[in-house]
Amino acid sequence: MPTSTTHAPSDSAADRAPTAEELLGPALHEEVVRHFTAEPDAPSAAVVRHQVRECMRYLYLVSRHPDRLGGLFLPVEQDIDEIWHYLILQTREYRDLCEQRLPGGHFIHHRSISYGAYQEAPGRETAAEEALRWIPLYTATFGTFDADALPHWTIVRFLHDELHMSLTEIADLGDEAEAPDGPTVSVRDHA
User: pLDDT, tens digit, for every residue of 132-159?
Assistant: First the structure.
């Protein structure tokens, strides 16, 4: 098995991905948190802040890597999709976010499709391969998935909860996917 590389994002300000609050601006960030904590049976403000963070990380990656991630199924949980829906409805701010604050500088469209319908279209194997594409891009940009991100990324939670992989082992899958010879360990090895 290859030696794992460090999965920390760059420390230099020029290379560092902006935070959710930096991308949204403090006012919109707090508006989103207030909205989702005001709902009945809402999670705590701390959990909602993590949800907003992961939504912004998702949009950041889609914007930065449209050639690799464009058109793929949303690999995050419904709570993240609901935050994205809320942002889309703030039309001016969402357009500014997409075109001025995210790295790709282009509008990010949203199209709803159920997971079942998506699995039928490309097939389960293709759906799983596409979901795994996110791991190396995420870890290269933001570092290893942490416990606060885990509940919000479907494939990462599956690998952790069902295949009992540690967050470090999941990050190593990203290394293996980027290796010139391809992965040396498959997800099946952990079943």
Answer: 889 999 999 999 999 999 999 988 999 9
Is pTM beyond 0.90? Reply is: no
Of 86, 93, 61, nearest to 74 by C-alpha is: 61
Calpha distance 130→68 (Å, rounded): 9
Give alpha helix (H) positions in the chain: 20-24, 26-37, 45-64, 66-69, 78-89, 91-96, 115-120, 124-132, 134-142, 154-161, 167-178
CA–CA distance, 162 with 133 (Å, rounded to integer): 19
CA distance 98 to 93: 9
Burial of 6 (0-12, 13-18, 19+ CB in 10 A): exposed
DSSP letter string, 5-54: PP-PPP-STTTSPPPHHHHH-HHHHHHHHHHHHSSTTPPPHHHHHHHHHH
